[in-house]
Amino acid sequence: MPRRYDPERRQRIIDAAIRVVGAKGIAGLSHRTAAAEADVPLGSTTYHFKTLDELLVAALRQANEGFAKIVAGRGALEDPRTDLAAELAAWVGEWLAGDRTGVELEYELYLAALRRPALRPVAAEWAEGLAELLSRRTDPVTARALVAVVDGICLQVLLTGVPYDEAYAREVLGRVVAGARE
């Protein structure tokens, strides 16, 4: 049987991996489960992703894009008159209001980086990218503190099931920003 050209196959495998992790957790992901979910031959998953870690890295990179799209879509951070804490709290609210599975997946993949060193650089990209973006409006230490607070708030919302409280987030983030000015 001749080989079919399928330029979307790699992307379908990544999407399938995200769905598998969303439904079964990282422990449920294998080349076999990704292939079945993507409806591709098992050999396709191992052709595009030699190891499961490579597939997880691709999935985490794609998951990271969700928050980046929100940040890029709003664009208000470039305006120095924009309340930094309010804008960041709104970003988080928009992110958490979207597909919660994607946010959960992202955090599950971050935590997997504790045991899978191949994921660590990708897990760090999100925090570093956001800190770099925030550094345009504040100093690097405050930017990293803001990222840590955002991470903490998101984890609390995900783990407790308590609805996101944008006013609370704005207040806490505002305190970090104000502390940098003192």
UniProtKB/TrEMBL annotation:
Pfam families referenced in this protein's UniProt entry, alphabetically: TetR_C_31
Family annotation (InterPro entries): Homeodomain-like_sf, HTH-type_TetR-like_transc_reg, HTH_TetR, Tet_transcr_reg_TetR-rel_C_sf, TetR_C_31
Segments of the chain annotated as binding DNA: 30-49
Presence of keyword DNA-binding: yes
UniProt keyword terms in alphabetical order: DNA-binding
The keyword DNA-binding belongs to this UniProt entry's keyword annotation: yes
HTH tetR-type domain ranges (all copies): 7-67
Entry protein name: TetR family transcriptional regulator
Native organism: Streptomyces coeruleorubidus
Lineage: Bacteria, Bacillati, Actinomycetota, Actinomycetes, Kitasatosporales
